[in-house]
Amino acid sequence: MKFFRFESIYQREGWLSPAFVGITPTGTIAYMNSKPPTGVAEHTVEKIAGHALAGFVNAHSHAFQYAMAGLAEHHAQAHEADTFWTWREKMYKTALRISPESLEAIATQLYAEMLRHGYTHVAEFHYLHHDEEGKPYKQVGEMAHRLLKASEKAGIRITLLPTWYAQGGFGELPADRQRRFISSSLEEYLQLWHQTNKLASRFNHADVGFCIHSLRAVSEEQLKQLTLLHAQEYPHLPFHIHIAEQQKEVEDCQKYHGKRPLEYLASLTKLTPAYQLVHATHLTHKEVEIIAKSGAQVVLCPSTEANLGDGFFSLQDFQKSGGNWAIGTDSHIGLNPFEELRWLDYGQRLKTHLRKVYQHTQEPDSAKIAYEQAIFSGRRAVGRLDLKNFFEVGKPFDALIIRDDVPLVAQTAPTHRLATILYSSDASWHLGTWVHGQWQILEQQHKHKTTILPQFREATNEIRG
Prior knowledge:
By secondary structure, the protein is of the alpha/beta class. It folds into two domains: 2-54 and 390-450, Roll (Urease, subunit C, domain 1); 56-381, TIM Barrel. Helices cover 38% and strands 21% of the residues. It has helices at residues 84-95, 100-117, 142-154, 186-200, 220-233, 247-257, 261-268, 285-294, 302-307, 315-320, 337-352, 366-381, 407-410, 414-424, 449-464, and strands at 2-11, 14-16, 19-23, 29-33, 45-54, 56-61, 119-126, 157-164, 206-208, 210-214, 239-243, 275-279, 297-300, 324-327, 399-403, 430-435, 438-442, 445-446. Strands 1, 2, 3, 4, 5, 15, 16, 17 and 18 form a nine-stranded mixed beta sheet that branches. Strands 6, 7, 8, 9, 10, 11, 12, 13 and 14 form a nine-stranded parallel beta sheet that branches.
């Protein structure tokens, strides 16, 4: 076992300082205390000049979309609207150009960047299943396998969410440009899901969940089939779905099903804490209460939602109803978890003209509220229900280390340290990121940068050229 001394470690009860941590060869915490371990020589304890925060969960990712980050900002003619729906056409063109090899290279670079910013676990909402002609690969889970290999190479934990996408819109056949996403029946989807689950079982850092792309992507009968299967056989696994992201989606659902998206979903299945409702931008107060009372969570991606012009989530209403939310980076236009939390907070401040946005309880610290939501709801979003504190003996040491020589950090009392980091930091404040007791990022550099970056450049040359 190796012993380390951190300047401090953040726990629910506050900062443990100094913090001595013993980490086993398998990467789990065996000792954690403010006092050095008895019988261990001082010179054998490695000093880490930083403050340890639990690593973030990125609860919503479309890895292939990282290849087009920044490429959709040349807008149409002034008299033509540029919306989520026009952006989607550009995304479809990108999707049609991604090979298995390029997906692996793009995802590896993306996951390395997530680690650099402090994410240690990613929920990969994966729907790029088939070849460029829309035909299944010889190994049905080929693209999923590439994502698993990418996450292993980068050193990030992954919850892979094979996504069911069966139709092009409410009551519509799939469009040709969606051909790589489509599993036309439950049998086809389950074949994909089971092979993905089998592949994931070969990796120590991976697991799987269930996923429907959106209510418009499956029929009513298909939605009933998969939610029933989940409830009967896999209720412990997370179940993710895009919902109510755009006003047009809400209007189309009302027109076709006679209900708003959340009302429609809740009428067909019993929502449980396993459900992760991504975006949920356009909700009524009644829908907010349905989600909160069910224990289901919302996954918010503020930088992407802003980039796509989705709208403002009903955060204060949701929190007052007791709802929980996690964060993700979706299309990866931004990758900083602290920035996602700032976007979420500041958007609400601009909307309400109030600064007290996160505070819906007696807790006075906005940063603590936001950070606890991001960590614990993020863990629930990927099915990690075994952790009650940020760090625990017997559990893996996954951490983001904040440098102690940053002037603002060095000059801030512990009572304001977390808020200073959350509201003022950028990635230059990060000393590095640990996953399972090992540095994956140190001084802004990934340990496999020399092989990851050239492969990424080669993969994106044609796509981004």
